[in-house]
Structure formats: structure tokens, C-alpha cells
Write a structure and sequence with these properties.
Blueprint lengths: L4 H14 L7 H8 L3 H13 L3 E4 L5 E4 L8 H9 L18 H17 L4 H5 L5 H8 L6 E2 L10 E2 L1
Antiparallel strand pairs: 1-2, 3-4
Helix pairs in contact: 1-2, 1-3, 1-4, 2-3
């Protein structure tokens, strides 16, 4: 699974809004989060269309969350800018025609991604905390290593 730059920037911008009282301009978000301004504008448009943020025009205008940060999940933000969380060959697992264990694997993957991203709110991240079930995953040493991509051996080597 890959998190796009668009999704990562959208989450960062949303967390900034969650931790700020009042309206924030796109320039302030871009500067604080080091996001290219034009790219951020497209992200904010997607977040606005999805009802994650609202925008105000004119003097004193900018962006703010459309509802309390406790009611906006990371999944909401990612879906707003990138669409469904898990695709297999450009299809949702529930739309696939195949049956059997491989389909069940893709559905299980989607369920595990949902468990983390739908179980974590912007309020959690703005407070620099993770929900217990997500924090438990982070505490596992295996979470911090990946199989080495350049070595194809019977005994995989790991790197951080």
C-alpha cells in the first residue's frame, strides 16, 4: 500500500487546522507544513468538496475544519483527496469478480487499513497521540523494519 504525497499533505494540513482555533489561510498552511502552494490549493479544494474543511472568502478568509476534529478521521481526509483506501487493479475489493482466498486477502487488507485510519481522528493527531489499538501496532519491533528490496534470499534480511 502506498500513501500519496497528496494524501500525506492533506493529513498534515488537516492536523494543523485541528490544532488551530479559527481560520487559517492557505499561505499559512503551506508555510507551516512546507507544502507547495499550488499543490495545497488542489488539496484544499478536495477537502472542501468532501466536507472536511470549509472555506471563507475575503479579508480574514481561509480554511477551518467543517466539524469537530474528534469527528473527522484520517480515512475521511485520505478519501477526500485520493478516493477509496484500498484498490486492487483500480477496483474496490467488494467490486471484484474473483472469489476465494485471494479476494478474502484483499478484503482483510482493506479491513485492517480501515481499522487504523478510521480509528484515528484529527483530534488524536493534533494532540500527538494515537488510539491504543494503533499505538500497540507501533510498539511492535516488526513494524519498524521492512524486507530489504534488493535481496532475494531464502532468509530475508531486514533494514530500518
Amino acid at each position: 500500500m502506498r500513501i500519496s504525497a497528496r494524501a500525506e499533505y492533506a493529513v498534515r494540513a488537516s492536523v494543523l487546522l485541528a490544532g488551530t482555533a479559527g481560520v487559517v489561510t492557505s499561505a499559512e498552511i503551506a508555510n507551516a507544513e512546507e507544502i507547495p502552494g499550488k499543490f495545497l490549493e488542489g488539496i484544499l479544494t478536495g477537502l472542501t468538496r468532501a466536507g472536511v474543511v470549509t472555506s471563507r472568502r475575503g479579508a480574514g478568509g481561509g480554511y477551518e475544519l467543517a466539524r469537530p476534529a474528534e469527528r473527522i478521521t484520517v480515512a475521511d481526509v485520505i478519501r477526500a483527496v485520493d478516493g477509496p483506501l484500498v484498490f486492487v487493479r483500480d477496483q474496490r475489493p467488494s467490486e471484484m469478480r474473483e472469489e476465494g482466498v485471494l479476494l478474502e486477502l484483499w478484503v482483510a487488507l482493506r479491513a485492517s487499513v480501515r481499522e487504523v485510519l478510521e480509528g484515528t481522528t484529527l483530534a488524536d493527531l493534533a494532540a500527538s497521540r494515537l488510539p491504543d489499538h494503533v499505538a500497540a501496532l507501533v510498539r511492535s519491533p516488526a513494524a519498524w523494519v521492512s524486507p530489504h528490496p534488493d535481496r532475494r534470499t531464502d532468509a530475508p534480511e531486514f533494514f530500518i
